[in-house]
């Protein structure tokens, strides 16, 4: 199969693809929307995109594009540890503290705020499309006193020297990635063990905006003893104060409990859409 991912080679998303689909071909794309478009246009069989980081929260472009621009079911989720390193061109490995500019993805820069604040004062920070794109840029511009924040694979892929390792603010830095495709796939390395199952719903409240509406929504899950691992509000983009909710249920779609909860919510005037019912995995590599 062909699997689209946020490129170039050696991004964290690339690592997730290599672990999930070791026998398939990963195809790098410049942006997350490009990855989703590739699935819609049948250029690839599936895509893997980041959904949420433990430190920085949801990747809004993934959610917004998935909700507002196209409808692709979530087929799987994988959580991978994230280690961020400061890397430089070999020409500058002995004088990295004289670096003038640091390139990386905006989330990676935010994940390393303490290190940058304490040890990189005066160094300009520029956001690019991915951590690997930052590493590639540093390789291609040795004349610039620049550094990149990226992973170890990116340092190897682009021949950079790691000046400071593990510069992220917190040890528990993980990112959730999701697999999206038009149709169910014969997928995922069989050596990976399923950690559990989830069902993700998008819920829009009734337009009458009555008091206690969200409490009623949560009650539909609570009395059925359905465990919710995540509740997130996102703007509907129809006006200030208008939101829908993304809810993760810690079980796969069944014949009784989840359909019953959906029916109860619809009886309350809510709109419910199933974004996917899928297995999730945990990776130990980064």
TrEMBL record:
Keyword field = Amino-acid biosynthesis, Aromatic amino acid biosynthesis, Lyase, Phenylalanine biosynthesis
Its cellular-component GO annotations read: cytoplasm
Record keyword Amino-acid biosynthesis present = yes
Q: In which pathway does it act?
A: Amino-acid biosynthesis; L-phenylalanine biosynthesis; phenylpyruvate from prephenate: step 1/1
**UniProt-listed Pfam families:** ACT, PDT
Q: Which reaction does it catalyse?
A: prephenate + H(+) = 3-phenylpyruvate + CO2 + H2O
EC? 4.2.1.51
Q: Which Gene3D superfamilies match?
A: 3.30.70.260, Periplasmic binding protein-like II
The Gene Ontology terms for molecular function here are: prephenate dehydratase activity
**Site Essential for prephenate dehydratase activity: which residues?**
175
Range of residues in the leader sequence: none
Bilayer-crossing regions: none
Q: Name one GO biological process term.
A: L-phenylalanine biosynthetic process
Q: Where is the Prephenate dehydratase domain?
A: 2-182
- Which PROSITE patterns does the annotation name? ACT, PREPHENATE_DEHYDR_2, PREPHENATE_DEHYDR_3
Class of enzymatic activity (EC top level): lyase
* Residues annotated as domain ACT: 202-279
Q: Known PANTHER family for this protein?
A: PREPHENATE DEHYDRATASE P PROTEIN, PREPHENATE DEHYDRATASE-RELATED
Q: What is this protein called?
A: Prephenate dehydratase
In the UniProt record, what gene is named as encoding this protein?
pheA
